[in-house]
Amino acid sequence: MFITSIFKPKIIRQLEQTIGKKLEKLDTLYVGSVGYVQNERNQITELSLYECGLKELPLSIVKLQNLTELDLGRNQLSNLPSSIVKLKNLTELDLIGNQLSELPPEIGQLQNLTVFDLSNNQLNQFPKVLLDLNLEVKMAYCRFYGDEGIYIEGNPFQTPPVEIVEQGRQAIIDYCAALEEQARPLNESKLILIGDGGAGKTSLMKRLLGLDFNPQESQTHGININALTLQHNDNDIKLHCWDFGGQQIMHATHQFFLSKRSLYLLVLDSRRETQVDYWLKHIQTFGGNAPVIIVINKIDENPHFDLPQQRQLKKRYPNFKQVCRISCATQQGISELIRTIQDTLPDIELLNTLFPAKWFKVKTAITEQAQKTNFTSYEHYVDICQANGITKESEQNTLINFLHDLGIVNHFQDRWLRETNVINPQWITEAVYTIINAPQLAGNGKLHRELMSTLLDNDTYPVRKHDYIIELMKKFELCYALNDNEYLLPDLFPTQEPNFEFDDEHALHFILEYDFLPKSIFTRFIVRMHRDILNNTYWRNGVLLTERTSNTTALVETDSNRLVLQIAGQQKREYLAILLFILKDIHRSFNNLTITEKIGLPDNPNLTVNHVYLLKLVQKGQTEYLPPENPEKSYNIMDLLGIVAPPSETEAMRMLQKILSILEAQGIEQEKDLLDHVDEVVKLNPGIFGVSIDVNALVKKMLRR
Q1: pLDDT tens digits for 342-361?
Q2: Partners of 137 in the beta sheet?
Q3: What gap in Å lies between CA 246 and CA 256, rounded to an integer?
Q4: What domains sit in the chain, N to C, each tagged with a CATH number?
Q5: Terminal Cα-to-Cα distance of the chain (whole angstroms)
Q6: CA-to-CA separations, 137 to 79, 243, 276, 291, in angstroms, rounded
Q7: pTM for this structure?
Q8: pLDDT tens digits, residue range 103-118?
């Protein structure tokens, strides 16, 4: 919505004349931007009351019969009056960031709406009336005005569950229709045991399952999956227990198995110092706000050990619920831990999700089949659906995607993966972990296709499924293809930095500082940029890249919780923007990442300045930056910001061409999907391309050449 902003007193007087005195209260409530647009007959067609502290909608607004765009974002509205339907000419309605928990049934009468933004409200039930608007439902934020759809990101949906809502309008219709026949609570979730290797996770799982303790328990080199049933409110709750190996090499794969719909047990060894903050941030990054119980094991060997500063930990990690002290050897504290798990069950997201009865039958059939085989064809899944009354193709798609989100099956829509359903998730995780732990790959990361038959048991992993496993690893961005028979795994690159030359004296320096840097971010970055690797110059913590058409090179290194980017050559600014785009696109896969961007001063890269701080200086009208470490020399702020934000459309077009080729190499080929990737990254980080450029229009222009 384009709004002409004018001074508050003037617009208040004009609005009062137009729609009545009730808007006088804006004189005291005003904290945001008020603006409007009139047509040639002095009729208000676009009205913005953004961030004005409104607790209810002034009824006088409905007198503005010519309104086509209404922005009520970032207010405190808890309900909408049904009279809003009098604004029948509305095409865009923005209610982002309010307190709405429901909508009036009449809202479906606004049939001219093309954009309806309900992001960041309090809707726990998807309002069925929105389906009457015949707009696509998008679990995203509205990125560019004119993007049609209903935007609903940031709402605490329970019915339908968020996994269904994410699939869009047709999935919501399928779920609601199936729910009307018969339903029951799912009462299932994951119990994930995580922590350092040797902490006793496997022994703890055995104790929870009522099995004997083995003092010689071997260390887990993959994932053990078992089922545990506990009682809560007279209901059986089935917990799928996932015991993760603690080796550092496996942490990069956690992104594919850790989820929000889980309860986490962080297992610590009382005899050793453990990075509790690392693990809590690790869980938060992949599992969102899923509840965590910290379990201190082996207290029989160190009875005085306790977790320090628990109060501060709970402030930093609100999902941290309790500490339990146990000994798997003596069973001390095990019964108390089980009671704590039972008490924490209500905190698991969507534990009581309603599951349609016929969907349950399909789920049960697949679960029973998984006792006999590890995978099945999609055609067989369709046969199971049809045998249980699910005949519509759209409902079959909705259900299989939901079962995938729940971790019951692995199903992907990619061309090389969609015909196989893995109905035993442990089958694929064991294959991946066997490969990344193979001694033959250590220190070089090179996987030959023929080696698969040596590494994997041929009965469990027949040769005809080797391509599936490799394609899945490529999808997970664990590896990339050198040719038809060889693949490289960046996590297994040599640790020793090779000899190479790089002009760091004339390079741009840009640093990303993370409060927590997931190991997989750098791995995935290398996979996406592997076509630019210069002369095989890579190692575990760094890579040398080149943009060959412009004679520009980039040295990218990971250092503790930092990524350091140095760019040298003819188009430093453009190549930096491309690399930042790829990194920010990867960041979208993670929760709660806190990243500080810093720019190295041109003649002294060891001195850095916060990128956001520079932007704030510009807003205040300042033109020069004086580094406190060296106050004798000042720097032009726009020159420093120019490192990050290319100003011209020509430069942006070149960057976008490169970015689209990288995204297409990932298998993102549809115009809609490409636009979604570019739109979302640019909306969240407009400085990448410069605020004056309509990137959305440029992408469409390029795609249609």
Answers
A1: 999 988 876 778 889 999 99
A2: 150
A3: 15
A4: 8-157 (3.80.10.10), 188-347 (3.40.50.300), 358-473 (1.10.10.10), 650-703 (no CATH)
A5: 28
A6: 21, 36, 39, 29
A7: 0.79
A8: 999 999 999 999 999 9
